[in-house]
Amino acid sequence: MRKVLICCAFILGSAAQAEEVVIAALGDSLTQGYGLPAEEGFVPQLQAWLDAEGVEAKIVNAGVSGDTTAGGRARVDWTLTPEVDAMIVTLGGNDMLRGLDPAQARGNIDDILAAAKSAEVEVLPAIPGMVGCWNALDTPFTWGDDVMTVLMGTLPEAELTEHMKRADALVVMKTGRNLPTVRRALAAAGKLDDAWLVERGTMPDQRVAKLSEVADDDCPYFAIVLVHGQGRRPEAEA
After folding, report:
1. Domains in the chain, please, with CATH?
2. What is the CA radius of gyration of the chain?
3. What is the spatial order of strands in the sheet that 122-125 belongs to?
4. Could you tell me if 94 and 67 are in contact, meaning their C-beta atoms sit under 8 angstroms apart?
5. In terms of DSSP bridges, do strands 86-90 and 122-125 run parallel, antiparallel, or are they unpaired?
């Protein structure tokens, strides 16, 4: 999120002096703010930051929970209304979670960018939330021949455990009330002691903690559990 905010400030700095700039945030549940108090979603926080910086800008929430790049492509034209001056695109996470063809996702994003270019709208690409979270740990997340596995905390415990046993680097999304199940699966897979919880990654109130020190009832829906890969690590070569 921090990179998006910096881009907004850079692009809007001069335009904001003359008139309000309208920015559409095209994304999935992370943009929509699903499951969060109204003031804690991405769009309200970005709006509050811009207001505090004195930037005359309005953020339009065009996030849809569960959306994929195909969904974004299908609705980009009616998102780009005449008053929209810029667009933030945060799509692709659900494509990966559903195992959709990366080539199709790339094509959909290309079409979204082409639609924005045709409408003469600036686009601010954003990094996936998990990337911002593992960057908060200040250590390379995967290394060498590690295979990164992304899991949903909503999976059955037995299935989570089997995937975790085969994983090198591990990302578990949609934790929240599923944390007890995720914790038991990590313990069964022998990875609990290496697990981290990142809550509100890249935000001012970001929290990073060892999962073993986090209570089961102290985990919001969008917190991410991370386990570093153990392949060709820098400290192992030192």
Report:
1. 2-126 (3.40.50.1110), 130-237 (3.30.950.10)
2. 19
3. 57-63, 21-27, 86-90, 122-125
4. yes
5. parallel
Q: What is the pLDDT along the chain (238 residues), one digit of tens a residue?
A: 222 333 333 333 334 345 889 999 999 988 888 877 878 788 998 899 899 889 999 999 999 998 999 999 999 999 999 999 999 998 887 887 777 888 898 899 999 999 999 999 988 766 677 788 888 888 888 777 788 888 989 899 999 999 999 988 999 988 888 999 999 999 999 999 999 999 877 777 889 999 999 998 888 777 899 999 876 544 544 4
In contact, 203 and 157? CB cutoff 8 Å: no
Show the tokens assigned to 55: 């930037």
End-to-end CA distance of the chain: 33
Contact partners, residue 132, CB within 8 Å, separation at least 6: 1, 2, 201, 202
pTM: 0.59
Q: Is 60 helix (H, G, I), strand (E, B) or coil?
A: strand
* Segment holding 170, helix H or strand E: strand 169-173
Q: What angle do CA 37, 42, 48 make, to 5 degrees?
A: 90
- Decide: 89 and 72 in contact? Cβ < 8 Å: yes
Look up tokens 């998990």; give the residue.
130
Burial 62-83 (b: 16+ CB within 10 A, else e): bbbeebbbbbbbeebeebbeee
